[in-house]
Amino acid sequence: MAMASSVKVVLGSIAFAVFWVLAVFPAVPFLPIGRTAGSLLGAMLMVIFRVLTPDQAYAAIDLPILGLLFGTMVVSIYLERADMFKYLGKLLLWKTQGAKDLLCRICLISAISSALFTNDTSCVVLTEFVLKVAKQHNLPPHPFLLALASSANIGSAATPIGNPQNLVIAVQSKIPFGKFVIGILPAMLVGIFVNALILLCMFWRLLSVHKDEEDPAGEVVVEEDVSSHRFSPATLSHSASLKSQEWNSRLETADVKSSPNFSGNIDNVETLRNRLPSSENEINNVHSGALDSARNSIASKEEIVDVSSHKREETILSERAASNNTLRDACPTESLEGKENLTTRWKRLLWKSGVYLVTVGMLIALLMGLNMSWCAITAALALVVLDFTDARPSLEKVSYSLLVFFCGMFITVEGFNKTGIPSALWDFMEPHAHIDRATGIAVLALTILVLSNLASNVPTVLLLGARVAASAAAISAAEEKKAWLLLAWVSTVAGNLSLLGSAANLIVCEQARQSPYLAYTLSFWSHLKFGVPSTLLVTAIGLTLIR
């Protein structure tokens, strides 16, 4: 494609630069309007600058991709209501064997759920659960959050509905759902294994040391609880002097130690001890007087206790009779409530079974090669009808801002293509990026990797997809399919390179930072230390397995 006029090139580049800045840095100080408004601003500038006509802008919006994205979001919402992700969370804890085993389970379950329900949905639902598990077992959240985000990105590469860029590739390439999965599934499985292995190697000492420290802490807590029951403050507060022991020994013959008033009388006697006369007779007189008063008080209190205990027994018997009458009156109501609860549970179970059957039916239709957009929309509407209630609460959970973002991005990228800059850059790269050679695959993968982190993965696919496929089609039809799958694999795994590489990373980061259970900040550099080796190794190994 020839370069456009200088004015169109400059103005189109300005519009695309505005879109790129706001897409990558949605909260820039000079224009903090966010990604969605940024994409609409870029699209509007393309029309205002006359890089595109209004008709060309409308035509650039890919409705099949929007329909597929909308349908999969609605299906994911109903699956969440049907407790699908709750069951996945329980599977994480089923017979777990410690921190390392839990990390491997998170990698596997995150990858599978992302392949079926998109990586963003999986990260939104599973992040808080992972934080709950980490807090419950006193585990460091950092490795588990990295496992969740990175495995979600890798797993989402295996299916056309796993992430937005795969949706674009599936619609533009017209590769059947089944062939798409078969082509990338081996790379995804090996990639998950390698990613988990890297996580274990990097955090082995942290997880091992923590496990060794966790059990003794639990034992100490148990011992402290036992000690607190064994040594009460009342027992530890009794510390008598030698003189008080002698005084008590002289009162042993009285045999009134069980009297509640006796301790008070002893205290009174002890306070008068220093003023006692030296005569033994006077001491005996004082002692006998104290004993007489103690016996009188005991007798009077015993009479009061007898009367009060008799009244208490009568009150208890009357309360029991009243409660029995109340229980007899409430039995019919409770039985009706029990029947209603049983009916509600059965209806809930049937509805959940219907949701799962509709979802399985959608996957079967996709594997049969039917139109992906209409399969997803049909499944979404079937779930709406099956729910048999007002669909507004469920439909309000759809990310319409994401759909609007895609509309603006389609127009902006189409306008940038009209300038001729992407074609000129590809003409320069094409001789070195033929996928029938190992060096060509390496150059192509490196280009996609860099662009996906600079311009985001979906714009990269929109910019390079048709050009890479056309170059590969000149070799053979099989190479064209391989080119599309390579683009899907590298652009998806590239999201693990940095924290800003994919929306799934940002979702995990924000969810963890705002979590009420265990707030944790996943920093850019801590993610980069893991992301660089994981992305390079997983990408390189996957390239050898894609067919």
From TrEMBL:
<feature type="transmembrane region" description="Helical">
    <location>
        <begin position="528"/>
        <end position="546"/>
    </location>
</feature>
<feature type="transmembrane region" description="Helical">
    <location>
        <begin position="59"/>
        <end position="79"/>
    </location>
</feature>
<feature type="domain" description="Citrate transporter-like">
    <location>
        <begin position="24"/>
        <end position="494"/>
    </location>
</feature>
<keyword id="KW-1003">Cell membrane</keyword>
<keyword id="KW-1133">Transmembrane helix</keyword>
<dbReference type="InterPro" id="IPR004680">
    <property type="entry name" value="Cit_transptr-like_dom"/>
</dbReference>
<keyword id="KW-0472">Membrane</keyword>
<keyword id="KW-0812">Transmembrane</keyword>
<dbReference type="GO" id="GO:0055085">
    <property type="term" value="P:transmembrane transport"/>
</dbReference>
<protein>
    <submittedName>
        <fullName>PREDICTED: putative transporter</fullName>
    </submittedName>
</protein>
<feature type="transmembrane region" description="Helical">
    <location>
        <begin position="485"/>
        <end position="508"/>
    </location>
</feature>
<keyword id="KW-0813">Transport</keyword>
<dbReference type="GO" id="GO:0005886">
    <property type="term" value="C:plasma membrane"/>
</dbReference>
<feature type="transmembrane region" description="Helical">
    <location>
        <begin position="355"/>
        <end position="386"/>
    </location>
</feature>
<feature type="transmembrane region" description="Helical">
    <location>
        <begin position="438"/>
        <end position="455"/>
    </location>
</feature>
<feature type="transmembrane region" description="Helical">
    <location>
        <begin position="180"/>
        <end position="204"/>
    </location>
</feature>
<dbReference type="Pfam" id="PF03600">
    <property type="entry name" value="CitMHS"/>
</dbReference>
<feature type="transmembrane region" description="Helical">
    <location>
        <begin position="398"/>
        <end position="417"/>
    </location>
</feature>
